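FORM 7B: Structural annotation worksheet

SECTION A. Query
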Amino acid sequence: MPVQQTAAAIFKRVDALLAAVSPNHNVMLLRVIAALVSVLCFAGDQVFGYPALALAGTVTYIICLLLYAEGLFKTIILMHRVSAELLIVAVMVVTFLDGQPLSGALVAWVIGLGLFIATSIIRKNRERIEGLVKEGKQTARVIKDDTVREIGLHEVSVGDLVIVPKGAMVPVDGVVTEGHSSVDESAVTGEPYPVFKQAGSQVTSGTLNLSAPIHVSATRNGDDTYLSVVTKEIEESLAQKSETQQHAETIVQVFLIGVTGYAGLLYFITGDLHLPAAVLSVACPCAWALATPAAFAATIGRLSRMHVLTRGGEPLERLVGAETLVTDKTGTLTRAEPVVGKVVTLNGADEREVLRYAAAVEARFCHPIATAITAHAEVQETGALPEVTESEELPGQGVRAMIDDSIVFIGSGETLRAAGITLPAVQYEGRAVWLAVEDEPRGVFVIRDALPDTVDGFADAVRACGISRVVLATGDQEEGEAQRVAAAIGADEYHAGCRPEDKTALVKRFQKEGQVVMVGDGTNDAPALAAADVGIAIGGHRNPGLVVRSAEIVVLGDDPAAVPDILAAGKAMKRAITQNYAWAVGFNTIGIALATAGVLNPILAAVLHHISSVFVVANAARLYYRRGDIQK
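SECTION B. Predicted structure
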C-alpha cells in the first residue's frame, strides 16, 4: 500500500506539471500537438531533406512517446488495467526501431486527435450538467431555549420545533403544531393543487409552504428525511448501473492486449520488425477506439444544441432496447397550472351570471384555482362584476361570500355536501369546483391541468422510435384527470394516485418484461428515474439537485416533445455505431491480413489507418450536423 500511495503521489505531481505546460491545461491536447509537430517535421525532412527537421521530429517524437507512456503506466500501476495508450506506445516504439517514425507519429496523431475531440465534447457537456448543481446550504430554523437558531439539516433531531416561513420549503418531516397554511406537495406526491395543513397535519420535507408561517415538530432526524432517503436511493441505483461499463472495459482490455500480443508473436516468428510495425500501424484500432465515443460525442453535442444534456452515450444506447416508457404527469406532461376546461350550469342558471359571481368572489384570493376561474371569466368577457360585501376563505374547504344579500359558496363537492347542500350527478373529466347560491347549486367549474399542444400524438411518436408500451403514472388523486391526460397523449394505460414508491414499484414491475424508460420532472419521481434503465428528466432547471442525481438525460426546458427526439437520437446513434464497427471489422481484418503478408509497409498502413479513422469520425459527425428533425 505505501508503494501504491507513493506512486500515486508521483503521478499526481507529474500530472500537475504537465497540466501547467499544456494548452488550456489539457494534457491530451499537448499529446496531439507533439504528435502533429513530429509528423510535420518528419514529412518535411522526407520532402526537403533537411537534417534539422529530422532532429526536431525525433525530439518531439520522444516527447510524445513519453507523454503517452506516462498515461499508460499510470493506468497500469494505479488502476491495474491497460488503456488505449498501450497500442500507441507499442506502434511508436516498433516503428521507431524499424526506422519508420513518420508512420508512428501519424498513428499517434490520428488516435490522439480523434479521442481529444470526442472527450472534449463529452467533458464540456458534463461540465454543463455539473453547473446545474447549485444547491444552497440546506438549513432549518429551530426554536431552542426560547431563541431561533439556523442549523444544518443534518443537525435536526426528532422533537425539534422548526419554523417554516411563508414561501419556504419545508425542511423536515414532521407534524404541524401551530398555524395553518396551504402546502404545495407536487414535488413529493405529484398532487398538482395545494393541500391545507393545520395543527396535527403531517408535512413532508421538500414540499412548499404557500400561504402562512407554520411551526413543525420534526418526527425524523435530518439525515432520515424524505429528501435524504431519496438521495441515498438514487445514488445506490446509479451505482448499480456501472456494471455495464465495467464489462465493456474488460472486453477492451482483452482486445488491446490481443493486438499487441499478435504483433509480438509475428516478430518472434519472422524476426522482422517491418511486419509487426505494419500490423500495429494498420490494426491499431482507431476505428475500434473511435466507433463508439465519436458517435457518443456527436449525438451528445447535437442534443446539447437542443438543450438536452446526457451523462455520456451509454444511456442513449440503452434507449434502443427499451420496451416500456413510463411518464409522470404533473410538471412533465402538464405545467401544474390549473385552467377552467368547462363550465356546467345547473338549475337553469345563466353561464355568464355564474362566471360573474365566481369571478367576483375569487378575485379576492390568490389560490391557483381562484386565478384560473378569474382568468377564464376575463377571457369570456362577462362584463361588470357584482359587488361582494363580505368574503372569507375557509381553509382547506373553499370560500364564502355575500353578493346581493345572498350567500355564495364555492368549493369542492365534498365541502358543499358537508355543508348540507345536495349536489346533482354531473359527468366531467377533471376536478370539480362547485358554486352554490343560498344552498342551491348553480354551476360546476371543471378544472384541468393545462396541457401543451406538443403532447398531442406523444405516445405515437414514442412508439415510432421502438417503444411498445406507454404508461402514465401520476400522483394526482383524480382518476378522471389521469384518464383525460392519458387519452390526450394516447397512453396504453394509466395509474392515478401514485406516490414515489408506487412509481418505483411500477418501473420495477415492467422491468421484468424488458428495459424501461422513465420520464419525469425529477422531484417526486426521482427514485423511479434512478431505478429505470434510463431516466429522462424534463424541466431540469427547476430542481437541478435531484434531477442530476437521478436522471441520466436532462431536458433543460418544459417541452415533452423532446422525448421522441431523444429516443430517435439514440436509435440513430446506435445505427451509426453498428456501421462503424462493421467497417472496423472489415477494414482491420483485411488490413492485418495484407500487413502480415508483407503487402503493406508501415507508412502505407498508417495512411490507410488514417482513412479508416476519418471514415468513422465522418460517419459519426453526420449525427451532429444532420439538418431538420433528428428522426429523419
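SECTION C. Observations
Residues 132-137, 240-245, 628-632 have pLDDT under 50 and may be disordered. The two ends are 55 Å apart (CA to CA).

SECTION D. Sign-off
Analyst initials: ____
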